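[recover] target loaded
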């Protein structure tokens, strides 16, 4: 339970403190000036425990150092009061759990670590459980083809200027580079990277056959960079018997996270949490307290938390992906009207849309997020998991869809929520429905009420001057209810484009038009392919999870 104390309630607490201290004179209890001062500096009460202003300020100081939970090393960034108080409340709730279990915290450790050790002591998975976990996480036990490189930046006046440098001369040149500036490391092994482009020089291609060769690159500032492909490591997919110990550790970590999250959820729901400090104008939601802790989706820990407003069930079925001839004709017609005048003749050639190959696909039932993931949800994930934060330059506002995340970021967030990214087929099926809608909302052409696309406010040359959707950039999620699918999914056409889990080589399919896309890109079949590491202000994501009849991990 949560709440805030009214001014009258705070007055009653003060009178009780005064009465308590008055009893000191009669010898019934103990109280002194320092106790009175401490009582009057209470920030919040958590059951019978309290959070003092001193503890609150101390955690702010720690957080400015980049730890324990605010992912920044900038001392000028002050963490949010809600986040500070949430962490303090979590600590008290875990302390209460330790007391209930009769456990004590050793010096130099924490309540969370002590609980984790106790939970781990009870962990004893069967071989079948380990194998099931392995089969669900085979992506963790695969390795791409990789190359190891050695680089040697040489001074501009070095005598070696040959286009190809013999391998036997390479280490001599490295030594010369190392001594060119005394006390500075100038070369070394940079480790394994994926086979393909050499580091810092994307125009140079490397293959396994190039191992042992050395190449020269002239930098614009006159420096010479020598790069040698030292060793090649082929791709591999490991077997269960090779990684069984890793599986045990991974499953144990998940079990500990799930149990600690369950403890926080249960205790937060059972404990009265009252914010006393009137300068903190918010309440603490028990569900939010548990959600900031890594672990499985809260809905799987407590089915009562399943919220039908956050996800939409897609029944599944068989449909045809890609654009029909009629849809391609319409896209070409719209493109020629709005895009070709800006980009020139040939920019709307029909062949550019024919890569959306039509095929029949069967999709199993699943649940999909009703809206795109918001900035504040992603910030909770970063703070809870210490995932790499987005640069401050790319920060957004609450209510708006998160963007500038690459594929790995999106996948990590969905896993944290106990979900996953949709495949391109699942995404398109959710947008089209069993009736094969042309656009997420139906067959009517886009306008300013259904989607946020490049309209009259858009700064791009291909803007559509006939419509005004109200936004020059992204809009808060769910701002276009008229563009919802019949099932209730919002912003499937427009606002921001969305990552999917469908990967083709070094690129992943991105679905759904965005606020900078032309009006013809709102069609449900539209697909772009972006490099996996791309961070783009027009690309975000939403998550899905299996329905129970489609396999494990579905919503209850």
């Amino acid at each position: 339970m949560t709440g805030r104390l009214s001014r009258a309630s705070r007055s009653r607490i003060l009178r009780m403190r005064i009465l308590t201290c008055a009893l000191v004179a009669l010898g019934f209890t103990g109280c002194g000036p320092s106790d009175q001062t401490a009582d009057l500096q209470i920030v919040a009460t958590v059951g019978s425990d309290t959070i003092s202003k001193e503890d609150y300020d101390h955690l702010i100081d720690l957080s400015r150092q980049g730890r324990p939970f605010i992912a920044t090393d900038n001392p000028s960034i002050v963490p949010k009061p809600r986040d500070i108080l949430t962490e303090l409340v979590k600590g008290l709730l875990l302390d209460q759990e330790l007391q209930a279990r009769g456990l004590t915290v050793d010096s130099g450790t924490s309540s969370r670590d002590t609980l984790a050790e106790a939970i781990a002591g009870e962990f004893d998975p069967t071989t079948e459980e380990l194998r099931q976990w392995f089969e669900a996480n085979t992506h963790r036990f695969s390795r791409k083809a990789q190359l190891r490189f050695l680089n040697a930046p040489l001074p501009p006046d070095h005598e070696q200027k040959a286009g190809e440098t013999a391998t036997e001369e390479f280490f001599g040149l490295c030594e010369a580079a190392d001594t060119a500036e005394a006390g500075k490391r100038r070369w070394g092994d940079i480790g394994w990277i994926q086979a393909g482009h050499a580091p810092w020089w994307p125009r140079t291609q490397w293959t396994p056959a190039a191992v042992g060769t050395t190449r020269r690159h002239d930098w614009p500032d006159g420096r010479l960079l020598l790069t040698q492909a030292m060793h090649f490591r082929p791709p591999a997919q490991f077997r269960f018997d090779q990684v069984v110990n890793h599986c045990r550790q991974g499953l144990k970590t998940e079990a500990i996270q799930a149990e600690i999250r369950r403890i926080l959820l249960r205790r937060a729901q059972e404990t009265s949490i009252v914010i006393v400090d009137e300068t903190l104008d918010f309440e603490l939601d028990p569900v939010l307290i548990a959600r900031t802790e890594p672990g499985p989706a809260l809905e799987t820990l407590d089915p009562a938390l399943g919220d039908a407003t956050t996800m939409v069930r897609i029944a599944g079925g068989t449909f045809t992906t890609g654009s029909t001839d009629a849809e391609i004709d319409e896209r070409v017609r719209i493109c020629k009207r709005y895009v070709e005048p800006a980009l020139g003749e040939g920019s709307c050639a029909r062949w550019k849309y024919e890569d959306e190959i039509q095929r029949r696909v069967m999709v199993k039932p699943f649940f999909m997020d009703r809206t795109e993931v918001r900035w504040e949800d992603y910030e909770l994930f970063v703070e809870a998991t210490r995932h790499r934060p987005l640069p401050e330059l790319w920060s957004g506002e609450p209510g708006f869809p998160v963007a500038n995340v690459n594929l790995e970021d999106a996948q990590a967030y969905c896993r944290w929520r106990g979900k996953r990214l949709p495949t391109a087929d699942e995404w398109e099926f959710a947008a089209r429905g069993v009736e094969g809608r042309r656009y997420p909302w139906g067959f009517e052409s886009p306008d300013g009420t259904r989607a946020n696309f490049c309209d009259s406010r858009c700064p791009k040359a291909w803007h559509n001057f006939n419509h005004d959707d109200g936004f020059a950039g992204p809009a808060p999620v769910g701002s276009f209810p008229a563009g919802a699918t019949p099932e209730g999914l919002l912003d499937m056409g427009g606002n921001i484009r969305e990552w999917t889990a469908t990967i083709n080589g070094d690129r992943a399919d991105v679905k759904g038009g965005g606020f900078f896309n032309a009006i013809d890109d709102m069609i449900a079949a539209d697909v772009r392919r972006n490099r996996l590491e791309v961070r783009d202000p027009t690309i975000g994501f939403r998550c899905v999870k299996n329905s129970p009849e489609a396999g494990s991990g579905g919503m209850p």
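[recover] notes: The chain has a mean pLDDT of 79.
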